[in-house]
Amino acid sequence: MPRPLSGTTPAHPGATVARLASVPYHPYLFAIYPVLALLAANAGKVDLPQVVRPLLLSVGLAWTTYALLVRVVREARTAGLMTTVFLLLFFSYGHVYHLARDLTIGGVLLGRHRYTGPIWIVLLALGWAWVWRRAPHDPFVFGPQGEPLVRNTPFTLNGDVEYVEWPSYAEGYRDELTYLNQRLLDIVRRILAVSTVEPIIVLQGDHGIPRLLEPWEKLAILNALYLPKPAPTVPETLTPVNTFRLIQQAYLDLPREILPDRSYDLADQVLWRFVEVEDKSPACGPASSQEEPHDSSRVLAPPTRFVSETPP
Description:
By secondary structure, this protein is mainly alpha-helical. The protein has helices spanning about 15-20, 25-40, 50-75, 75-100, 115-130, 165-195, 215-220, 240-250, and strands spanning about 5, 105, 110, 150, 200-205, 225, 265, 270-275, 305-310. It has a 3-stranded mixed sheet, with no helix packed on it. The protein has a two-stranded antiparallel sheet with strand order 1-4. Strands 2-3 form a two-stranded antiparallel ribbon. It starts with a strand and ends with a strand.
């Protein structure tokens, strides 16, 4: 499985490799490609000095976008991927608009900015959301201290072959989760520190671990709520369908019906057939500041649910 890049001091060669590996170069490669492609298509017709200005503008756009995003997401690799998604859509917009200028559907001419523009904005939002939600999904890219990992196999987004065996998968998941827990706590503390109004914070997973055999283990998620006092009573059996219904009832006085807390899984992997799953996940009650923090580096267990009225 991947191993953390070693080295904690600049003198160690592993530290230099780690720093270089953490720099996202791909946005700049995507930025210079369109300019070089135009130069290649017009070889002999355009002088090389004429390419310098658009090349600098393109690289400047990539750098500015990355600099803004890295200040928002505070993570270089995520900001780099989001920048690349933006550049792909930015430079492809004109080509798609040109192809769609005579395309009509239902009598509507799609080759208009009022149609293609919003579609591109939605695609950008979906692309950024996809980049943002990758962690802690495999392929794992961080060690327990946030250090980049050296892979032994090609990087893939689906069916990652680096973690075929459960022990390697569990170790990779645990190590990356250890780092993410540190980052999340820093984010929560910052939100609490800068908020002028007591915030509502929800940390909610989308699913459990699909590799586990028991259906309830695939559905067990972290559903952590930080609620201002007086906090509503949160059932230990709370499922995601009621998380925001509960909050809207308690704090916004909205008439939201609390639905039955029931979970379903696919029956024999058939998309339109569902079976109810008995919830056996270990839930816990309100967290307190006296409790010992959970050490995710020691155990990989199904996540639990908790609600807290005290800052982490």
